[in-house]
Design a protein that fits this description.
The complex is a heterodimer of chains A (176) and B (125). By secondary structure, chain A is an all-alpha fold. Chain A contains eight helices and no strands. In chain A, helix 1 packs antiparallel against helix 2, helix 2 runs antiparallel to helix 3 and helix 6 crosses helix 7. Helices cover 72% and strands 0% of the residues of chain B. At the A-B interface, helix 1, helix 2, helix 3, helix 4 and helix 6 of A face helix 1, helix 2, helix 3 and helix 4 of B.
Chain lengths: 176, 125
């Protein structure tokens, strides 16, 4: 069971991801990666995850692309290697094996869009039904993020603060 | 064999996830350029998040924002909000770690003058 318009969006996702991987010029690869993030956000908005789509457009397509571009402006923008050495044998054997195993497990997954899948029946109906009485916020994602799991969100800001400190410590120039 | 193939093609989201995940992982292993490795890492992160969000979708359901605040809520009318919350956190933390990795790349380039793994190893000796 699939959603209408989903297959063309998935093909666009695969094409932009492949372009970001195969492109020799790193600048073009990074811009294609931004396109990939944007198509990902479109797919998510289509699947009903609008909050995730907003965050992906702002943080994934916007901030990550800007960070990549800033790094490339300061360093070498080309993948200078003309001829690649042959890939290691373990990667050539192990990765297709992993792929076959993952695809073999596809039969046991619930169908996408199935309202009676285990992920949608166990505890998530309780959150949907009770969140307005508990938190008085119509947006269920906000009420879970900011109320039920507010400690998680607070510690997440600690992670981002730590990442900022690490960036500053790595990038500062020594005063000579 | 036929039923396995049919099961795969009934779940195109899962097939896309597997292709992007393994391709990004392969790029992380085989490419020598550090920025290219980070592009592979970003693809792996986002593909896993894509799989999680695909699980939350329900056919015929709308976004998890309550239409009416007085009527009793039917859970079948709204898509599952819990994977959305978890992936919001995952996206932001993923981009934060990506920023640290890119800052490391810039510091490496400043010290060794290259982003190629083998040239850096040569200069380390």
């Amino acid at each position: 069971m699939t959603f209408a318009y989903e297959i063309p969006l998935l093909i666009l996702l695969l094409v932009t991801a492949g372009g970001a991987i195969l492109m020799k010029d790193l600048m073009s690869a990074v811009l294609l990666l931004g396109c990939y993030s944007f198509f990902l956000a479109l797919v998510w908005a289509w699947l009903g995850a609008v909050d995730v789509a907003f965050v992906e457009v702002v943080v994934g397509a916007g901030l990550a692309t800007v960070l990549f571009l800033l790094t490339l402006f300061g360093t070498a923008p080309k993948d200078g290697r003309l001829r690649r050495p042959p890939p290691p044998l373990t990667a050539l054997i192990a990765l297709p094996l992993l792929g076959v195993l993952m695809l073999y497990a596809a039969k046991d997954l619930p169908e996408f869009g199935d309202p009676n899948s285990p992920a949608s029946t166990h505890i998530s109906p309780m959150y949907l039904e009770r969140s307005y009485q508990d938190t008085h916020t119509p947006n269920v994602v906000t009420s879970v993020l900011m109320d039920y799991r507010s400690l998680d969100t607070m510690v997440e800001t600690v992670v981002i603060f730590t990442a900022g400190i690490a960036c500053v410590l790595l990038l500062r120039r020594k005063v000579s | 064999m036929i039923d396995v193939l049919a099961a795969i093609f009934q779940r195109p989201n899962f097939l896309t996830f597997v292709i992007i995940f393994l391709w990004g992982f392969y790029i992380m292993i085989t490419r020598y350029n550090l920025v290219k490795k980070l592009i592979g890492m970003y693809l792996v992160q986002t593909s896993v998040i894509f799989f999680l969000v695909s699980i939350s979708a329900k056919k015929g359901a709308t976004v998890p924002i309550l239409v009416s605040t007085t009527d009793p809520v039917q859970a079948l009318d709204y898509s599952n909000p819990l994977p959305h919350v978890l992936t919001l956190t995952a996206i932001v933390v993923g981009v934060a770690t990506l920023g640290v990795a890119l800052a490391l790349c810039a510091a490496i380039y400043r010290t060794y003058g290259s982003l190629d793994e083998e040239e850096i190893l040569k200069r380390l000796e």
